[in-house]
Amino acid sequence: MQKTVLITGGFGFLGRAVANKFKQLGYRVVGIGRGLWGAQEALVFGFDIWLDGNISLLSLMTLNDRFDVVVHCGGNGSVGYSIENPLQDFSKTVQGTIELLEFLRITKSKAILVYPSSAGVYGAKEDAPIKETDDLNPISPYGFHKRIAEVLLESYSKNYGIQSVAIRFFSIYGPGLNKQLLWDASNKLISAGNGKAIFWGSGDETRDWIYIDDAVELIIVATRSQEHYLVLNGAAGHRVTVRKTLDSLKMALDVNAEIIFNGEIREGDPRFYHAEMTRVFKLGWKPMIPFHKGIEKYAQWKLNHMKCNHD
User: Fold this and answer.
1) In the chain, what are the domains?
2) What is the pTM (predicted TM-score) of this model?
């Protein structure tokens, strides 16, 4: 029997990559999200069935499939957006999550639910590897709402038997990502030419980058969990400073801009992100794309993307 996966937020960067992977694995792929795709266009991205709409109980109840796996990629992905639009962020992240959980409860689904959460739930931390068991200290509506979504998963797991895995992804990147640090930095470095490119912070802030293919593979591994409720870090387990990140990106883009840091902390931005990955590595997963290779792939895609748009 062919297995079926439901992917929410399927129009986004991660959702599309997840859909393609499940399609390659032979699944029937059903998606929901905000995107006006026709059937043929949706199929290009791996979706056998595509529903354009918000993640609501009303929309979900129109789906006739019984799902083996649900990957809940829906929700806002921007800290800045959450600060400027906290109510809308709550609706996208929290309301969308509980509507999905209600759908699974009402339909008595036996699917395993994988939720790509965020390291934003950790918030302000010291410059040391962060464990899944560490205290949570979110510093933005984005982080708080991701945390609430995780609590809902745990509640429905304990009260209604819905098996779920929350993966706290750190910094996912790769071809196709047209927002966040690398996209903005690429635009800034290219536009600066031989001049100065000015960035927030000191450059000593840290990030833990995970390439999109590795992130998707971790989601696949998570679907095999035997735990009733499990929390995992999603990262490579490597500490990279923002300065090193931008230097690597500058080299990969082959530009000569001078990188300057303004010393100011942007609201909602954590200083340090570095994942402790023991729990994940014990599951047999490990990252396959090293950061320098991933940055080269991303830069090449970015340059090709600009060339296609220019042409």
Assistant:
1) 4-172+211-234 (3.40.50.720), 174-207+238-263+289-310 (3.90.25.10)
2) 0.95
Rg (CA), the chain: 19
d(CA 232, CA 112): 15
User: Of 138, 171, 167, 299, whose CA–CA distance to 240 is shortest?
Assistant: 171
**What is the per-residue pLDDT across 39-60, written as a single tens digit (0 to 9) for each?**
889 999 999 999 999 999 999 9
Tokens for 53?
């709409």
Residue 113, SS3?
A: strand
Contact call for residues 72 and 9 (beta carbons, < 8 A): yes
pLDDT-derived band at 310 (thresholds 50, 70, 90) equals: low
CB 146 within 8 A of CB 96: no
pLDDT band, residue 274 (cuts 50/70/90)? very high
pLDDT for 267 equals: 80
